[in-house]
Amino acid sequence: MKRISRYRRHKAAGPFLLLLALLAIGTTFSVASATTAAETTSADRSLQIEEGRQIFLKGCSSCHGLNAEGAQIAPSLIGVGAASVDFQVGTGRMPMADMSTQAMRKEPLYNAEETAALAAYVASLAPGPAIPGESELNFERDGSTAEGGELFRNNCAMCHNFAGQGGALSQGKYAPTLMGVEPRHIYEAMVTGPQSMPVFSDKTITPEEKLSIIKWIKSAEKEPNLGGASLGRVGPVTEGLLGWVLGLGILIGVAVWLAMKAR
């Protein structure tokens, strides 16, 4: 006790005890704040999921079932993940009135908050691909245009055309143009495989390679049409066909006009 009393009378005892008290208060406050923040985040997440569920019941359940289990005219959404919902709803492809036709990109029916709520609800049903964050979409820093062009020609050009302009598929389907599509939606399409498109998992095309493909698409998007109309950028075949048909049509028209005038 005498040793403790001697240390208590030391001139450094006061500042040391004050520092110790401040450290204890700060630690307690940090733990309490983290717990409160976690509880708040969890509560907000639950509210978002419930909001998404209500939107789903009103706008999606008639085709996909009350529990997203699917029906004869629409597939199950269990396990498709938030990325699939963000792509389909964020690009305006869903909801759609006629499920027998291919979904087209159009003005979204739901705003960003409603789309996020729908995605959160579907993601809560079963694990699936998540929506990529901003840090995962830094294609300008992590992507390579040259590598992206090679990957695109090897994996995507047979459907989307070598310039990303889109193309026809079998049975009346088509691969849409990639011009003007948001990087997030391009990434989501690769990991979810919407409609006729295959799924490109991270083992098939790594995240870095996906960013390179996006970088090449955005580079192609900026290329000017120096020759006028692009004609789908499919090369001399389309240009030659147009020139032949149009040129031959003009020549036939001139010949008919001259023949009629000579009478």
TrEMBL record:
Top-rank EC class of the record's enzyme: translocase
This protein's record includes keyword Transport: yes
Coiled-coil residue windows: none
Catalytic activity of the protein: a quinol + 2 Fe(III)-[cytochrome c](out) = a quinone + 2 Fe(II)-[cytochrome c](out) + 2 H(+)(out)
Cellular component terms (Gene Ontology): plasma membrane
Keyword vocabulary terms for this entry: Cell membrane, Heme, Iron, Membrane, Metal-binding, Repeat, Translocase, Transmembrane, Transmembrane helix, Transport
Keyword Cell membrane: yes
UniProt topology in membrane: Multi-pass membrane protein
Domain Cytochrome c: 47-126, 143-221
Example of a GO MF term: heme binding
Subcellular location: Cell membrane
Chief localisation class: membrane
Transmembrane segments: 241-260
EC number(s) given by UniProt: 7.1.1.8
Family annotation (Pfam families): Cytochrom_C (PF00034), Cytochrome_CBB3 (PF13442)
PANTHER family named in the record: CBB3-TYPE CYTOCHROME C OXIDASE SUBUNIT FIXP (PTHR33751), CYTOCHROME BC1 COMPLEX CYTOCHROME C SUBUNIT (PTHR33751:SF13)
Protein name in the entry: Cytochrome bc1 complex cytochrome c subunit
Organism: freshwater metagenome
